[in-house]
Amino acid sequence: MSPLDVQVAPARMVDVPDIVALVERFARRGEVLPRPPEEVYQTLREWVVARQGDRLVGCASLVILWADLAEIRSLVVLPDQQGKGVGRRLVTAVLHQATELEIPQVFALTRKPGFFAKLGFHPVARETLPRKIWKDCIHCIKFVGCDEVAFIRDVAARPAPHMASAIQVPAPAASGNGHT
User: Fold this and answer.
1) Which CATH class is domain 3-159?
2) What digits encode the pLDDT tens for the residues 53-67?
């Protein structure tokens, strides 16, 4: 199968065991934090996956930290798929989510700064991300000696939707029984 056979899509319930196993594989090597099954189930809407046929070859999540900031988390790609554009496609998918949600900035903490630099991210001091530091980093065993670099990127504003494509929700019909 070629890299073109890899499909990137929002995660589904059936993907959870594979996401957990893939993230755990990289967590054992200290490359990402582990994500237990209950956390992945609870945050499933945040995840995107890359599949090559029936095989999960990569995943990432977009975690909203505040109205103006989201984080790319748990970006992992199987070693045999690295360097083939799978990671770039996963990042593109979560950046698209951020655009749709009108989140102006997305960041990642990474040990692969070159990868994020090629995607338009630029380095920033971790101290400029206090919501991340006090929400998650403070609890990490590597907090004092963290070897990750923070990279951030502005996300393009979503174009205004055309009126014809806007979702119209009809008002409930009035009924004479007093119930609405």
Assistant:
1) alpha beta
2) 999 999 999 999 889
